[in-house]
Amino acid sequence: MELVLLSGGSGKRLWPLSNDARSKQFLKVLESENGELQSMVQRVWEQLGNVGLADSAVIATSKSQVDMIQSQLGQEVPIIIEPMRRDTFPAIALASVYLYSVEGMGLNEVVAVLPVDPYVEDRFFQRVKELEKTVLESGADLVLIGVEPTYPSAKYGYIVPTAKSSDSDYFKVSHFTEKPNEEKAIELIKQGALWNCGVFAFRLDYMISLLEAKGLPIQYDELLKQYGQLPKISFDYEVVEKTEHIVVLPYDGYWKDLGTWNTLTEEMATNQIGKGIITDSENTHLINELDIPVTVLGVSNAIVAVSPDGILVSDKEKSPKIKELVNEFDQRPMYEERRWGWYRVLDYTKFEDGREVLTKRIGVTAGKNLSYQMHHYRSEVWTIIKGEGEFALDGEIRFVKPGDVLEIPIGAKHGIRAITDLEFIEVQTGTQLIEEDIVRIYMTWEEVEKNLLSCRDVRSIIK
Fold it and tell me: Which pLDDT tens digit goes with each residue over 36-66?
């Protein structure tokens, strides 16, 4: 069985810590077994390893999240990259075609799909392992996992089953109800309905045949070319609700969707992350990513979240409404994690004559490097403030240290590698200060060293 983890959504419900580049699953606010902070995706990947599923798992994600995934899970994690966000049906279609035409997976083999961010016990993934057996034994087109409800939630969809077969532990599915009111939810639970946790499995042949019937390519390269024309629709609406033979495996353990501030803070091991003070307040959480102190005095049942993207002060019960409000905001992400480290936007100014100035603080992890690249529309000035590194500029490599100021004209080829953890202030000046204005020439530092002439022996300088 191959496992596909979906990681493609944008970050709105946990604003201001989440944004278009850093979705909720990447926020390091949960506590690991060794007491360190970890993200939802790190927790799930660790759990997959605990039950022996990590080696057969692949993550389907958008281009904007690749660096974040590699930063948190490592460079070797298998990834299927969507060229753009198109919802879960296109993402699962692309993953299925990749497994079929690139990986050579057989049509009778089973594919299981699940979100990358459920908050569950390890034994939930033991249930996931049973999906393969259930698909093959039941002959169903789709097999879902349904969570036994602990209260009549109006936030989740419900799977309504028919009677269970006497010789199996799965149920046939009668129908689905999407996010009912509390009164309806009580009625559904009496009927034995289960929460839909977004986990399902199918034989690969089912998805490939469905794509062929829709006239869509089943070769990966061809589907990539047409990806922008695929309908922007969820797998639930496009496939699940139109499939007749579906069964569901019930799960009676702990499960929670940490999609809002009130649910996320319930699972945090501490009520404060970052600089600040909470006093005379009950059930209040403070998460502060800035270097300035935040004081919360006499405010109970609240979430206070502070990041370069903004500041949120909200009653916990009202916090799910934040998504509706921030949809109106139109600003670039002010903080991102990358495969080489991170950056934070410090200031952005656009002048009347069209010139723009963008200032960032950039951190490069020891041993990592920015690609050797060039820009068409901007010049840059880098001021090293921490650590040591190697700086490449137009064919030459030299050693850099705190206090060095590096000027990079428009069109100049440049890159940097951190010898120790490195930080510098970058000031961009130009007419189009966008992330897309990057022409990458070499990605690894080995390529840089092989193809560039070193103007000095860096190692002798370090000594």
Answer: 899 999 999 999 999 999 999 999 998 888 8
Residue 24, pLDDT above cutoff 60: yes
Measured between alpha carbons, how far is 176 from 193 in angstroms, rounded to an integer?
9
pLDDT tens-place string over residues 83-103: 888 889 999 999 999 999 999
Task: Indicate whether 152 and 287 sit together in one domain.
Answer: no
Q: Do 194 and 72 belong to one domain?
A: yes
Q: What does pTM read for this prediction?
A: 0.82
Q: Which residue has the tokens 């990079």?
A: 408
Which residue shows structure tokens 């370069």? 308
Q: Is the pLDDT of residue 200 over 90?
A: yes
* Other CB atoms within 10 Å distance of the CB of residue 218: 16
Pair (322, 361) in one structural domain: no
What are 400-413's pLDDT values in tens digits? 999 999 999 999 99
| Angle value at C-alpha 71, between 343 and 269, nearest 5 degrees | 90
Instruction: Assess if residue 384 is contained within a domain.
Output: yes
Task: Note down the domain range covering 292.
Answer: 270-326
The number of distinct structural domains making up the chain is 3
Tokens of 215: 């006239």
